[in-house]
Design brief:
heterodimer, A: alpha+beta, 8-stranded antiparallel sheet, 8% strand, globular, B: mainly alpha, 79% helix
Chain lengths: 528, 97
Amino acid sequence: MAWLHTWGGLWFCWLLYAIFLTGTLAVMEEPITHWMTPEHHAEEARQAAVVKTAPLADRPRSLAHAVAYLQREQPPGEMWEIWPGSARHGNDLTVYWMEKGAYIARHLDPLSGKVIADPHDDHDAGRATLGGHHFVDFHYTLHAGTIGLWIVGAATLAMLVTLVSGVITHKRIFRDFFTFRASKGQRSWLDGHTAAGVLSLPFQFMIALTGIFFYGNMYMPAATWAEPAMGGARVEASSASLLAIPDLEPFARRGETLMKQDLRAIVIDKPGQPDMRISTYGWNDDEERQERLVGTTAMVSFSADGKVLETRPAGKMAGGSATYAIATLAALHMAEFGGFTVKWLYFIGGLAGTAMMGTGAILFMVKRRGRAANEFGRATPQVYRLIEALNIAAIAGLAVASIAYLWANRLIATDIAHREDWEVGVFFVVWLMAFSHALIRSPGPAWREQWTFFAFLCLALPLVNLLTVGDMLPMEVVRGDWESAGLELVALVCGAASWWALHRLKRRTTASMRAPSVRDVAPVAGGE
Amino acid sequence: MASKPTLSKSWPDVALRVLIGVIGGYILASLLAAALALMLTGAREGGKWGMLAGYPVYVAAIVASFGIASVRRVALWFAGLSAVLLSAIILCSGALG
C-alpha cells in the first residue's frame, strides 16, 4: 500500500498540485476578475446608478414587446425565453432562443421593443481579459478542451486512490497529526505532509469525489448506455395551425404568487404547439443563495390554458433523489453557498491540500538525497534530477507564473488584439521558463531564486497597480473595494511569508556552515 | 506459525496489479453502474445512482488490487465479481424485455 501511495502520488503530484492550486485560486474568481478589470469599477458603479434611476418599463408592455419580437423574427422552435427585468434586478429586457444547438440572446429596449446593444457589454470600457476564469479553465480542462477534461479526470482518480492508500499506510494517523518535529529534515517534511493531509482530509475527499462527478457520465458512460430509453418520439414543430401565444402577464402574476419569489424569466417550450408549456422562474435573493446548498430558484409550469402542470420550490430539483444528490455534490464542489465565509474556508482547505501535495513531492526527494534507492537502475540519477526539476517548476514555478499573470494584466497594452490570450500566454511562458531554470540550475539555488522572484513579484504588485492604473491599497480600503484590497493583501502576505522563509533558510544554512558537526543535518528543500 | 505473505515488488507483479486495478476496476465499476441502471428503472433514476456508485467502487478496486497478497487472487476476485454483475445485467435486461 505504501508503494501505491508513493508512486501513484508521485507521478500525478505535479499535475494535481497545479489543479489544486488553480482550483483554490478559482474559488476567488470574482475578486480576481474584479481586480483585473479596473476600468470596469467606474462602469459598474455607473450602471448601478442607471438601473436605480432609469424609468421602469411596465412588465406587461415588456413581455408583449418580447413576444412580438420573437414571433416576428424567429420561427417557432424548441424554446423561447424572456427575461423582462424589474426595478429590483435591473430594467433590461432580454430574449433567448435555441438555434442549431446554440443559445442566442437579443437585448430589447423595454419601452420600444427595438433591438439594442447589450447594456452590460462594456468591452469598450476596458481591457479584454479572462480574469479569474483563467484559473477556472485551467483547473478543470488545463485549457485543453476535452483532452484536458480526461487528463484531469484521470488525475482526480489517482488522487482518490492516493488518499485512500495514504490513510491505510499511516496507521497512527491521528497521533501523527499532533506530531511535528521541526528542523529534523526528512522527519519534518513527513510530519508536515501528514499534518496538512489529515487537517484537510475530509475536504480533500469531498472535493475530489464531487469534482469527478461533474463529468462522471463522460468518463463512465456505461450507466447511461444501459438505462432503458425514456420518453416518447420527438414532435417536430409544425408551421400549420399554430396556437397564439397567450398574454404572459397573468402567467407572471400567478407564477409569482405560487413561487413566492419575484419573476426572473418566462420560458415557453414548444411555442405555438398544442403541447406548449409556459414556465415562470423566480429570483433567489442573496440570503436565500447563501443559505441553500442547491441554488435553484422556484419554478411553476403552466399549460397554454393556464392549468398548473408542475411546481418546484426554491432549492429543489425536477427529478428524483439521484438528480438532487448530483446537484448537491456539484454545489459542494463549486462553493456556491454560504457567501465569502465558505469561500475563505475552501481557500484555506485548498491551500492545505496543495501543501500536502507539495510536501509529499519534496519528501520523495528528501528521502533519496541521503540514500538513493536505485529504482531506475543506471538512469536513477537522471530521473531524480528530473523529479527535482519538476518539483521546483510545479511548486515554485507555478506560484511565480500565477503572480506573473496578474503582472501581465497590468503591463500588457490594453488595446492589442486577443489581449486575453497574451495574458494566458505569459502564464505558460513564465511557467516553462521556471522549468527550464530548474533544469539548468542545481536544486538548492533554483528553489531559492524562484521563491525570491515570487516574493518580489508579490510584494511589488501593489506598486505596479499604482504605477499603471493609479490605484493603491489604502484607496481601495477607503472606498470599500475589498475585492481589490483583498487580492493585494493576500499577495503581500504571500510575498512576506516567502521572504521570511528564505531569510530563515539563509540564516540556518549560514549557521550550519559555521558548525559542520551539527547532528541530524538532513537535507531540506533548497539545500544543496 | 506461517508468516504473513508480503507483496512482491517485482516489476511484472506491480505492472499486473496496475493493469488489473485500472482496467479491471473500470470494467467492474462500469458493470455495477450498468446493473444499477437496469435495476432501478424510470423514476428511480438508476443511471444516475449507477454513475454515483461506480467511482467509489473504482477507487476501492484499484486500492484492493494492491492490498491482496497475490496477483492471482486479485485477478480471481475481479473476474468473479464481474461475472456476478454481468449475470445481473443479463437477468435485468431479460426481465425488462
